[in-house]
Queue: 4 jobs
Job 1
Amino acid sequence: MSRRANRTPVEGTSAGRNEAFELEEQNDRQLEGLSAKVSALHSVSINIHDEVNVQNRLLDNSSQTFDRFGNLFDRTRHQLTHTLATANKRFLCYLTLALVFGVCVLYYIGKGLLSRLFNSDDPL
C-alpha cells in the first residue's frame, strides 16, 4: 500500500470524502473477493468430508470381508488339521492322488482351450 492509502482523510474536505469513499469501495471489493474464497473453501471442505465418509465405508466393508475370509480360512485349516490327525494313511493317499489327477485334468483342459483360442484362424 502506498503512504497515501494509510493516511486518514480529512473529513471536512471533498478530497477527504472522495478518498474515504474510494477506500470504502476498495474494502468492499476485497471483502467480496474474500467472501468468494471462503465460499470456495467451504465447498472444498464439504467435498473432502463426503469423500472421507465414502472411503471410511469402503474400508469398513473391506475389513468385514477380510474378517469373514479369515474366519473361513481358520475353519478350513482346523478341519484339515482334524482330518489329517484322524484319517488313515490309505485315505490320505487316495485323496492326494485324486487331487493330483484333478489338477492334471484341469491343466490339460485349460491348455487345450487356450491353444484352440489362440490358434484359430477365424477372426472374432
Job 2
Amino acid sequence: MSSPTQTEYTAIKSTVSSIQALQLALDVELRQFLHGHSMTPNDTSLWTNQFIDYLLDKNAEYRTRLTEKISRQARRLRRLIAPSIFNSKVEAMLQIVAEVAVEIAEIEQLFRHQHGSMTVVQRSFFNDLLTTVRQSYEACTTETLALRLRFEELRPALDFLGQPEDVLFRMLVLGPYSTRDAIRASIGGAMDDLATLHISREGIGRRATEIEYNVSIDWCGAGVTHPQLQEATETLNDLHAQISSQIRSQNVALLKLQAEAATANSSPHRLQEHRDAQWSLPDLITVATDYDSLSRYCSLLEEEQIRVSVRQANLRLSQGRSAPARN
C-alpha cells in the first residue's frame, strides 16, 4: 500500500480512539450522576420515577432536619432572657445615653468657663480628656442604636419561636416542596434528553468500532480502496461531531436536574401559612444564636464605663486635682 493510504488508515484509528474517549468520559459523568441520585444505570425507562423518588426522599429528610433545628432554637430561646426584658434594657441604655449627653454639655460649658485661667498644658490635658469622653459617648450611642435596630429585625422570628410548643410544632408540619406531577413536568424533558443521549452514544460507539473492524479486515485481506477509506473517514468524522455535540447537551440536562435536586434539598423557604413573613425558615435556625449574642453584647454595653468617665472628667475639671500642675 502507498504511504498516503497508510496515513488515511492511521487517521481512521485515531478518530475511533477519540470517539471512544469521548464516549467513556460522558458515560462516567452520567454514571456518577445516576449513582449519586439512586438511579439504575442500565434501564433508562426507570430514570424519571427513580429521580422523583430521590427528590421527595431528600426533601423529606431536609424538612425533618429543618424542623428539628428550629425546635432546638425555640427551646434554647426559652432559656434566654425574655425579649420584653431585653427591650427594656435597651430603652434604659438609650435613656442613659441621653442623660450622658446633658452631662457632657455641662462639662464643656465648665471647660469654656475655666479656659482663661488654665495654662497651655492644662488646656491640652482637659481638651484630650473631653475628646476621649466624646468618642466614648458617640461609640456607645452608635452601638446602642444598632443593637435596637438588630433586635427589631429579629423580633418577628422571636415572636414566632416564643409561641407555645404545641402551637409551634403544628406550624412546623411542612409538606413536600412539590407534587410528583409538577416535578415530572419540570424535569421530564431533561431526563428524556439524558436517556436519548445515552442510547445514541452507545450506537455511535458500536458504529465506530464496526467501521474500524471492517477497515482492518479489508486491510489485512484483499485490500481496501481509497473510496472505501474516504467513505469510512467521512462517516467517522460525522460520528465524532455527533458525540462531541453531546458534551454540551448532556451538561445542560445535568445542570437542570442538579438544580432541581438543590431545590428539593433547600425548600420550603417559608411557612405556607405565613407567606408574608419577612423571615424565612432557614433564618429561624440561627435566630436564638443571634439573640444570645445581642444579649451578651447588651450586657457588655451596660457595663460600659462612659458614665464613670464623664463624672471623673467633671470632677477633675471642677477640682483641678488630676490636671498637670501650673508651671
Job 3
Amino acid sequence: MAQLIGTLRGLAGVGARTPMLGAASMLQGALFGSSSAGYATGMTKKDAAYMLDARDDPEVDAAIGAYVKEVYAGVKEPASAGDMPLAAKVEKKYAGAQIVAQGVQNIAVPLGYAAKDTAPIKRFVAELNSLATKAGFECAAAEVTKRLAEKALTAETVKAFLDRIQPLCSESYHASLTEALAAAEAETNSSVSMDATSAGYKAFAKKVEAAASKAGIPVKAIMGAKRDDAGQTAYAAWQQSAAVADATTEVEAMKATASAVLDKHLSKTAVAVRKEAAASMAALTRRLDTSKGQAWAAAYQADLKIIEWFDAQVAASPKVGPKVASA
C-alpha cells in the first residue's frame, strides 16, 4: 500500500520523489533499461515473434497487446532491436518460480504460534524473504513498486490503473482507493487521467494519502521529503511490522483451512477436540495441585517439564528440532 502511495505521488509530481518511488520515466527505465527507448512496453519485433506461442501467460498477452497498439500508432522500433527484454523477463520469472516451488516445501508454517509470541512469524517471514532472494526477486517493497509502475505505464485512466492493480491490494484498501477515485471524479466532474499535471490526478493522490492514514499507514514517515537515519529506521520498522501483520493474517487463514480439513475427517470438530484437551489439562492441573508432595505427582510434573522443553525446541527451530545437548 505504501508503494502505491509513492507511485501515485511520483507520477503526479506531488511531494517528494525518492529513488525507489520515482516518476514514470524513472520507473520505466528501471523496468526495461535502455531498450525501452522506442516502445513503452520495452518489446521489440523479435521479442513479440518469439513470445507469440506463450500468450497463455497474462503478462505476455498484455504486453503483446500493448505492443500491437504501439505498432499501429506508428511508434518507432527501439535502436537495440536485437534484444528481447520481455522474453528475458518471462524466462527469469519462470526460473524463479521453479526455485520458489521447491524451496517453499522446506519452510515450516507456524500454525501453532502463540498470539503474544511473534518470533515464529518473524522467522517465517525471514525464510520467505531469503527464498525470494535466491529466486532473484528484490525485497517485497521494490517488487510491488515495480508491479505498480508496470501497470501504470500503459494505463490511460486511474480507473484502468486501479482495475489492473486489484490483485496487489487487499479488498478493503482497494475499496478505499475506488472511493477516493469516485470523490476526485465528482470534484472535477470528469474521469481522472494518468496525466501528471491534471488537477483530478493530484486531487486523487491527496485522497489516497488520506485513505492510507485512515488505514493506519504512517504516510508522513514513509513519504518524508528527507530520508535521514531516523526516517530510514522508522520506515524499516514499519515495513517489518506490516510484513508480520500480513504473514499473521495468512497463517490464521491457513489455520482455519487446516481446521476445516480436520473437521471433515474427524467425528468431532477441531475446536471441540481442542476444548476437550484444554478441559482435561485443567482438571489434571487441579489434581496435581492437590497432590503436592506425592511421588507420582512429582514424577508427572517432571515429565510435563520435559514435554514443555521439547515443544519449545521444536517451535524455536522446526527444521532442526530438539538438541539433546541443550536438554
Job 4
Amino acid sequence: MADPQTDLRDSEEFPVGYGDIRLISSDRVIFHFQQWLLMYMSPVFKDMFTIGNANESSNPPSVTLSEDSKTISMVLRFIDPMKDNPALEFTILSHLLEAARKYQFGRIKDWIASWLNGNDPAVEATATQFSTMQAIELLEVGTTFDVPRLSQLALRVLIKAPAHELFVSRIGKSEMFEHLMKLRAERIGRFRQLLQLALCGGAAPRYIHNGQLTIPDTRYIGICTAMVELIHAVGLEPSYACCMCNWGKELDNAEYLNNIDKYKKALQERFTSLEAELPALS
C-alpha cells in the first residue's frame, strides 16, 4: 500500500516556493499558492483560513480538496494575475462550475459565459458534434448552474436527435424537458411543411392530410405511401440527415414520382432557411 505522503507530487505550474499554502488535489497533486490571493478571491477560503481549517501542522500549511488536479489547475491559473487563462473545453465545464459555486469564485462563471457567447468558431463547431448523451449532460449543467448559452447549444442538438435516444436517457420530466418537446414539435411541424412544399409539383401533397393517406386514385398509392413513411421518419428524428437517408429508402424508388432530383434540390434550398426560422432556444 502506497504511503499517502510519498505518493504526493508537486505541480509543475505551481511548484514549491510559488506560494505559502499547499492545496492537495484528489489525485494527490500539490499546488503551492498564495494564501492572500485565495482569501481575496474566495470568501470560502477566507473563512477557512480565518477560522483555522487548514492543516497548520504541516509546513507550509495544507488544505486537501475534493477536486482533481486539472480542475484546481484551471481555477488557480484563472485567478492568478501572473498566469494566462487556460483554454476552456466543454468536458471540464461541469467541474469548473461546481468548484466556482463551492468556493464562490463568481468570476469563473462569467469567464465561461464570455467564452460561450464569444466569437470563437470552435465553440459552435464543437457543439454541433455533440452526441445525444453529451448534449443531455451539458443541458443538465447549463440548467443546474444557470448558463443559458450552454443550454441553448445543447438544445440545438437535442431538437433533432433520434427520439429513442432521448427517452432512454436520464433527462427526466423536467421543465427543460417539456421545453425541449415543444421545440421538437415545432421543428417537426416545420419540417413536414417543408416536405410538402418541396414536393408540391408531385402528386403526394394532394393526397396526404395530417400524415394520413386520402387517395382517390390508386395510381398514386406508391408515392403517397412513400411520402407518409418519410413524414413519419422525420417525426422521430427531425434532422436533414434523417430526411435524406429515408428519402433514399422511400421516395427514390416510388413508382410515380417524376423529376426526383428537382424535388431534392427544392428541399435542400428550403432547409437552409429552416434553422433561422426555429425558436431562439432561450
